[in-house]
Design a protein that fits this description.
CATH superfamily of the domain at 143-199: Head domain of nucleotide exchange factor GrpE
Structural class: alpha+beta
Largest sheet: 3 strands, antiparallel
CATH architecture of the domain at 143-199: Roll
Order of helices and strands: HHHHEEEEEE
CATH topology of the domain at 143-199: Nucleotide Exchange Factor Grpe, Chain A, domain 2
Number of strands: 6
Strand order of the largest sheet: 1-4-5
CATH class of the domain at 143-199: Mainly Beta
Radius of gyration: 53 Å
Strand content: 15-25%
Shape: elongated
Length: 199
């Protein structure tokens, strides 16, 4: 029996081993080792996290700036409103006072005229009537209305009964006004003092 086939088999086996080694060498060449792959993945993940944190920090800083601006605007508005309220309180009666000044002037002129020679009761009365008319017009212009309820049904919201007297007409009606009342924008400033009828 010849040794040739055995040698050929050994030779083939050796060649196969070399081929396998060469194949493994080629296939693994250029491929990252397992540890390198994990490191690259970690680096990419860390970079992504850092980018996300940077974005969130920028967004947070922007919102903080917006909040500071809103707070400053609200503070300015509060100060402006406080100033307006103080001015309104201080000068609330300014227009009313301006409207009353001509009435004061008219009263002063009437007093001067009454002290002069030749002043008659008729002239003084005429001057007083003009001044009273000016005063009533000024009051009405500012929402003040007189309550003169003669002949009206007694209204406890606007009238104050000073006495009750028998009367031939309907009961609970005003038959006498001792003093007019006044309303300011439909709110009672002073009730009318009245005499009320009873049956």
């Amino acid at each position: 029996m010849s040794d040739k086939p055995v040698e050929e088999g050994k030779q083939q086996t050796a060649e196969q081993q070399r081929a396998e080694q060469a194949y493994e060498s080629v296939s693994t060449q250029g491929e990252p080792v397992e540890g390198e792959l994990e490191t690259n993945d970690q680096n990419a993940a860390e970079q992504s996290d850092e980018d996300e944190v940077a974005k969130l920090k920028a967004a947070l800083e922007e919102k903080e700036q917006e909040l500071l601006r809103v707070h400053a605007d609200m503070e300015n508005l509060r100060r402006r409103v406080e100033k307006d309220i103080q001015s309104a309180r201080k000068f609330a009666l300014e227009r009313f006072v301006e409207a009353l000044l001509p009435v004061v002037d008219s009263l002063e002129l009437g007093i001067d005229a009454a002290s002069k020679e030749g002043a008659t009761l008729e002239k003084i009365r005429e001057g007083d009537e003009i001044t009273l008319k000016m005063l009533i017009q000024t009051l009405e212009k500012h929402g003040v209305k007189p309550v003169d309820p003669m002949g009206e049904k007694f209204n406890p919201d606007q009238h104050q009964a000073m006495s009750v007297q028998p009367h031939e007409g309907e009961p609970d009606h005003v038959i006498g006004v001792m003093q007019k009342g006044y309303l300011l924008n439909d709110r009672v400033v002073r009730p009318a003092l009245v005499v009320v009828s009873k049956s």
